[in-house]
Amino acid sequence: MQVIRLEALSDNYIFLLYDRIQNIAAVVDPAEAEPVLKQLVELKAELVAIFNTHHHHDHVGGNQQLMQHFPKVTVYGGAEDQGRIPGQQVFLQDGSRVQFAGRVAEVIFVPGHTRAHIAYYFPPEIAGEPGDLFCGDTLFAGGCGRLFEGTPTQMLNSLDKLRSLPDNTHVWCAHEYTLKNLQFALTVDRDNTELQQRLDEVKAYRSRGKATVPSLLGVEKRTNPFLRWEQPQLQLITKSNDPVQTFARIRGMKDKF
Fold first, then answer.
1. Which residues are within 8 A (CB) of 232 and not within 5 positions of it... i.e. 6 or more apart?
2. Is-contact 13 172, C-beta < 8 A?
3. What is the second-level CATH architecture of the domain 2-223?
4. 137 assigned ligand-binding residue
5. Which pTM does this prediction carry?
6. What is the pLDDT of residues 171-226, one digit of tens each?
7. So where does Zn(2+) 2 get bound (predicted)?
8. Burial profile 186-208: b = 16 or more Cβ within 10 angstroms, e = fewer
9. What average pLDDT is seen over the chain?
10. Is residue 56 marked as binding?
11. Phi, psi (5° rounding) for residue 160?
């Protein structure tokens, strides 16, 4: 399974999953149809699945047009998003499985950004190789999503599920927010030398127009404050050793950054 990153809107990423053996494709969170259709024409591939993480328009905006071009496509989404995702046919729950290109992905229920958000985790085909996590707007490189429909407790529990995955997991998040996320992260985790180095690297990447996605989960665990609520530095700056309160206060600080 090849993952092709497509740019969309102002800062969205769409992920096209390509099976070169069968010459079929699936797409994760098509914000708009045009980049997907262009890539499919180049590959001469048929779209067979749309994997949505949540109902926001910048993740499902291309569904209907893609369905018009590929009437047999199957549209997947979270069970609790019923009625909110255009064309949804399959309603997934925590622990559900989806298949593509001979790989089986686990569905992880991760409410917080929205009440119905899900993520798709494809374990590695060979032990020791990277897996692939498509996490929508729950976990970002250097950050996490805003809490529009969920609570801090829900979001912390969701992020805790994701950080339990192997360190070498590719984190395919849906927006290019990394630079600003890390600039904020350094304000609450100043003594983190790996974070300082990562910010310098990301500045260099973005100055050349390079994408910072995917990230690696191990890097997130060491540098992303939204996965580090037990760290003394973060508890000190939030004046709390309660995990949920620490997380909530960091999220509130980021909202104002």
1. none
2. yes
3. 4-Layer Sandwich (3.60)
4. yes
5. 0.97
6. 999 999 999 999 999 999 999 999 999 999 999 999 999 999 999 999 999 999 99
7. 58-59, 137, 175
8. bebbeebeebbebbeebeeeeee
9. 97
10. yes
11. -65, -40
Residue 41 confidence (pLDDT): 98
For the four alpha carbons of 127, 76, 176 and 37, in that order, the dihedral sign comes to positive
Residue 152: per-residue pLDDT: 98
**Where along the chain do its domains lie?**
2-223
Q: For residue 74, what are the contacts with CB-CB under 8 A and spacing of at least 6?
A: 48, 49, 50, 89, 90
CA atoms within 13 A on the CB side of 94: 9
CB count in 10 Å sphere of residue 72: 8
pLDDT per residue over 105-141, tens digit each? 999 999 999 999 999 999 998 888 999 999 999 999 9
Whether 54 has a binding-site annotation, put simply, is yes
Q: What six digits make up the tokens of 49? A: 């699945």
Asked if 176 and 212 count as a contact pair (C-beta separation under 8 A), the reply is yes
Q: Helix, strand or coil for residue 150?
A: coil
Q: In what order do the strands lie in the sheet with 132-136?
A: 97-100, 103-109, 118-122, 132-136, 170-173, 215-216
Check whether 191 is labelled as a binding-site residue. no
pLDDT tens across 50-108, in order?
999 999 999 999 999 999 999 999 999 999 999 999 999 999 999 999 999 999 999 99
DSSP-H helix ranges across the chain: 34-43, 57-60, 63-69, 152-163, 178-188, 193-207, 217-223, 232-238, 243-255
Single out the residue of 246, 52, 60, 15 nearest to residue 153, CA to CA: 246
